[in-house]
Amino acid sequence: xxxxxRAFLVIVAVMVVAGVVVGLVWTRLNPHVAMTMTxxxxxxxxxxxxxxxxxxxxxxxxxxxxxxxxxxxxxxxVYLRHGVLVVVALLVGAVLAAVVAFVTxxxxxxxAVVLTWHPRATPGSPLTAPLGLHAYGVLFSWPIGALAPVIxxxxxxxxxxxx
Length: 163
Fold this sequence. Notes:
Distance between the termini: 24 Å
Number of strands: 3
Number of helices: 5
Mean pLDDT: 86
Low-confidence stretches: none
Structural class: mainly alpha
Helix content: 55-70%
Radius of gyration: 19 Å
Strand order of the largest sheet: 2-1-3
């Protein structure tokens, strides 16, 4: 049992550390989005600025999926002998890594965790949009990427165990 617990903790810890790294990389890849305060709230200055705002989510999803896929394949291959424990550990680790990457990116880019943004500015004043997610569904890119290579590996391991 101590070997299984250690495998679980190692998998979760590696995923969380990867979440910190991805959060830092995410801040570097995103451009600043120029906005203007209107009577209805902040609005991107141009269509290009609106596209840059959407690219925040796209970069997060791409980085999370790639990191999850690579770590899922490597960790599942190393710990395949533990079977279902690997799937559960990768799922827990990927969910934690997704949240850690989001919070790390927000902290480093903005200086504070930004879950909602309500600037107090007069209409017509220029603003810079904080780094954040606009479509929270991209948080699922981590678990999907991490489990994509694992399910076939675990299934092949179970089929070999049955023989």
